[in-house]
Design goal:
With 623 residues, the chain is α/β, with parallel strands linked by helices. It contains 19 helices and 19 strands. The chain is 50% helix and 15% strand.
Length: 623
C-alpha cells in the first residue's frame, strides 16, 4: 500500500505573506500593525478569499486604527506561521487546532456556528464517496484492497474523522488498503479523482459535495455516499459522527486585550451580516467542548497523542495496572499450580513405575504359565497318542503279525524245499523277494507307529491333507478289519496344501476314525447292514475355500447330555476312556486356525468335521 502526497502552493505563498506582514509591522513607525488572521484554505486561496475575506473586512472595520489582514495557509504553512509567531489569530479546522494547541499553546476564544450545524452544535465530519455505478463497494468494510484518496494526513474532516470510522469498520487505511493517496489542497481534486475513476473511494469534508453540486462542478447522481448517517438538523450527506466547528484561536503572544476586543466584535456580528452569509455561518458562539476530538486523536494515536505509539513500560503499568495485577495473580496461581502438578507427576510416576514393575512381573509369570501350559499340552497330546495306540495295541499286533507270519511261512517253505533238494535258484529268488517285501511292510508299520508316538515340537509346514488322512487310516486298518467295519475313502484330488503339523493332523484324523469305528462296532453285523457299518472319510473344500475333512459313521449317535459335553475335558462315554481325545482334537484344530464340530446324520450316526485354512498356490511358491 503506497501513500502519495502532493505539495500545495499555499504553503510557500502563505509563508511569504506572513513574512511580509511581519516586516511591515516591524517597519511601521507610528501605526500599530494590522490584526493578522491565518485562515486554513482547504479549497485553495481563491475559495478562502471568497469565503473569509468578508469576515476579515468586518474585523478591519471594527479596528479602523489598525485594520486586519487575512493570510490563507495550508496545514504545513499554518504550522510554520504559528511557530514563527507571525500571526495574531488562526481560523482553522478542529483537528488542526488541537494539534496547534498541544504544540504551541494556542487558545480557542470562539467557535464558528455553522448554518448547517446539527442539534448538538457539531458540523465537522467526513463524507466517504464512491461512484454510483460501483456496486462492489457498498460499505466501509468493503474498502479493504481498494484505492482511497484524501486531501492530507492531517486534514481533520478530510481524512482523520473518516480514518476513525474505518477503524470501527475493521479497516486500517495504512495497512488494509491497496493504496492510500493524498491529493493536497484544494480538496476538490478528491471528488474529481473519484468521478474520473482515478480512485475507487474519496474522503471529503462534510458538505463539500453539496457545495460542489451547488457550484455546478459535479453531478450528484454520479456519486454514492458510503455508510450514510442522519443527524437531526444537519442536511449534508455524512458518513461519520459530527465534531465541533472551526475555532478562532489566539496565539500565546497575542495580547489579551486584543483577543477580548476581537471576540466582542465577532459576538456582535448579526446573523444575517454579509460576512456571515459569505462564510455560510450564523455568527459565533462561546468555545465548544473539543474533548471528542481529543478522544478521536487518542484512538488514532496522532497529534498530541502520537507518543502513545512509543509506549514505555512505566506507561503501560500506569495505564493497565489492573490487568497487570490480574496477570501477576494469574502467574502466581500458575506457579503454584505448576509446583502442585510437578509433585503429582512425581507421585504418579512413582506409582506407574511400581505398577510397571508389577506388570512386568505379571507378564513374566503369564509367559511362564503359557510356556507351562504349552508343555503340558504337548505332554497331553503325546499321552493321547500313546493312549490311542494303547487302545489299538491288539489291532496293531494283528497288523504286524500278518507280515511276520508271511515271512515265517516263506522261510519254512524255503527250508523244506532245500531239505528235499527241489529248490531251484529262480524259486529261491522269488521266495527271498516275498520275504523282503513283507519285512519292508512290517518296517513301514513300525515307522508309522514310531513317528506317531515320538515326542517332538510342533512343525508347521505345507501339508497334503490327503496324505495325512491316508497315514492315519493305515494305523486304523487293524481295528477296522477285526471289527468287520469297512473304511471308505473319498479324497478330493484338487485340494491345496494346508499349513499344519502333519503328526498332529494325523492324530486328529486317527482319533475321529477310531471313535467312528468304536461307535460302529457295537452295531449287529450282517450282510444287509454292511453299508450301515461303513465308516466314510471324505476330504474336499467347504463353501469358503477352506479344506474340510469329514468322518461319518452310522453308529448309535449321541445323547443330549453327550452332545452338550462332547468337547469337555475328561468327559467320555467309553467305560475305559480318558475323556481327552476330542478335547485335544479341538485344541489342535483351533491352534491351526480351524474349527471342529459334530452334526447328526439323517439316517442315524454322527459326522465329525473339521476345516483348516488353505495355502493358495502363490503363497506356496513364496514360501
Amino acid at each position: 500500500m503506497r501513500t502519495i502526497a502532493r505539495p500545495s502552493r499555499l504553503t510557500l505563498a502563505g509563508a511569504c505573506v506572513a513574512l511580509w506582514v511581519g516586516l511591515a509591522a516591524g517597519n511601521g513607525a507610528a501605526a500599530e500593525p494590522p490584526v493578522r488572521v491565518g485562515v486554513l484554505a482547504y479549497r485553495g486561496g481563491d475559495h478562502a478569499n471568497a469565503v473569509w475575506e468578508p469576515t476579515i473586512r468586518y474585523l478591519a472595520e471594527r479596528f479602523p486604527e489598525r485594520g486586519a489582514v487575512m493570510v490563507p495557509l495550508d496545514l504545513s504553512g499554518m504550522d510554520a506561521a504559528v511557530r514563527a509567531r507571525t500571526l495574531d489569530f488562526v481560523l482553522t479546522n478542529t483537528g488542526n487546532y488541537v494539534e496547534l494547541e498541544a504544540r504551541y499553546g494556542v487558545t480557542r476564544i470562539a467557535t464558528l456556528h455553522s448554518s448547517r450545524a446539527g442539534a448538538s452544535g457539531g458540523s465537522i465530519g467526513s463524507t466517504v464517496i464512491v461512484r454510483a455505478d460501483r456496486e462492489d463497494i457498498r460499505d466501509l468494510s468493503d474498502l479493504r484492497g481498494r484505492t482511497v484518496m484524501a486531501i492530507d494526513p492531517d486534514a481533520f474532516g478530510g481524512f482523520q474523522v473518516a480514518w476513525g470510522e474505518m477503524l470501527k469498520a475493521g479497516v486500517d487505511p495504512y495497512r488494509d488498503l491497496k493504496e492510500l493517496r493524498f491529493s493536497g489542497f484544494p480538496i476538490d481534486r478528491v471528488a474529481f479523482a473519484v468521478r474520473d475513476g482515478e480512485s475507487d473511494v474519496g474522503v471529503l469534508r462534510a458538505c463539500l459535495l453539496e457545495e460542489l453540486v451547488a457550484e455546478g462542478r459535479v453531478d450528484a447522481r454520479r456519486f454514492r455516499v458510503l455508510a450514510p448517517k442522519t443527524v437531526p438538523g444537519f442536511d449534508c450527506a455524512l458518513s461519520t459522527d459530527l465534531y465541533p466547528d472551526w475555532p478562532l484561536a489566539r496565539l500565546a503572544s497575542t495580547p489579551e486585550e486584543l483577543a477580548k476586543a476581537v471576540v466582542v466584535a465577532l459576538f456582535q456580528m448579526p446573523d444575517d451580516h454579509p460576512a456571515a452569509r459569505a462564510g455560510g455561518y450564523e455568527g459565533w458562539t462561546v468555545p465548544l467542548d473539543y474533548q471528542p476530538v481529543h478522544a478521536l486523536f487518542r484512538a488514532l494515536r496522532i497529534g498530541p497523542y502520537r507518543y502513545l505509539r512509543d509506549v514505555s513500560l512505566v506507561d503501560v503499568a500506569r495505564e493497565h495496572w489492573e490487568w497487570l495485577a490480574v496477570g501477576a495473580l494469574a502467574l502466581l496461581w500458575w506457579a503454584v499450580h505448576s509446583l502442585r502438578v510437578e509433585h503429582l507427576i512425581k507421585v504418579r510416576t512413582a506409582e506407574l513405575r511400581a505398577a510397571n514393575r508389577d506388570l512386568v512381573h505379571e507378564m513374566a509369570e503369564r509367559r511362564r504359565a503359557e510356556e507351562t501350559a504349552r508343555e503340558r499340552q504337548k505332554e497331553m497330546d503325546h499321552v493321547a497318542r500313546l493312549s490311542i495306540l494303547g487302545e489299538m495295541a491288539s489291532n496293531l499286533a494283528h497288523e504286524l503279525n500278518q507280515p511276520l507270519g508271511a515271512i515265517a511261512n516263506y522261510a519254512r517253505g524255503c527250508i523244506r524245499r532245500l531239505e528235499a533238494g527241489t529248490l531251484d535258484p529262480a524259486q529261491l529268488a522269488e521266495v527271498t523277494g516275498a520275504i523282503a517285501e513283507q519285512a519292508e511292510r512290517a518296517g513301514q508299520i513300525m515307522a508309522r507307529i514310531r513317528n506317531f508316538v515320538r515326542k517332538r515340537a510342533p512343525q508347521m509346514e505345507p501339508t497334503d491333507i490327503n496324505e495325512a488322512v491316508q497315514a492315519a487310516i493305515t494305523l486304523c486298518q487293524g481295528q477296522a478289519h477285526n471289527g468287520h467295519v469297512p473304511i471308505a475313502l473319498a479324497l478330493s484330488d484338487d485340494l491345496p496344501p494346508v499349513l499344519a503339523d502333519r503328526v498332529q493332523i494325523e492324530q486328529v484324523v486317527l482319533n475321529l476314525v477310531k471313535n467312528a469305528l468304536d461307535a460302529t462296532v457295537g452295531t449287529a453285523p450282517g450282510a444287509a447292514e454292511d453299508t450301515r457299518r461303513t465308516v466314510r472319510v471324505r476330504t474336499g473344500r467347504d463353501g469358503k475355500g477352506r479344506v474340510e475333512v469329514a468322518v461319518t459313521d452310522q453308529g448309535h449317535g449321541l445323547s443330549e447330555e453327550a452332545r452338550a459335553r462332547l468337547f469337555a475335558p475328561f468327559f467320555t462315554t467309553k467305560p475305559d476312556g480318558m475323556g481327552l481325545g476330542l478335547s485335544i482334537c479341538r485344541t489342535i484344530v483351533e491352534a491351526h486356525g480351524g474349527h471342529l464340530w459334530a452334526t447328526d446324520n439323517p439316517g442315524g450316526g454322527l459326522t465329525m468335521r473339521f476345516v483348516l485354512p488353505a495355502i493358495e498356490e502363490s503363497e506356496t511358491h513364496d514360501s
